[in-house]
Amino acid sequence: MELTKCMNAYTECVTTPMVLHADDYKQERGVTYLPLYMTPLL
To answer: Cβ neighbours of residue 2 under 8 Å, at least 6 residues apart?
Structure first.
């Protein structure tokens, strides 16, 4: 998974990895998945 490679390479810069997607909120393997409607709250 490319996101995991990026997280491992930049651990000192990336404190909370987030992905915007169409489904509900979830956390999985250290990644926060946010629904698109939460974009204005970032």
So the answer is: none
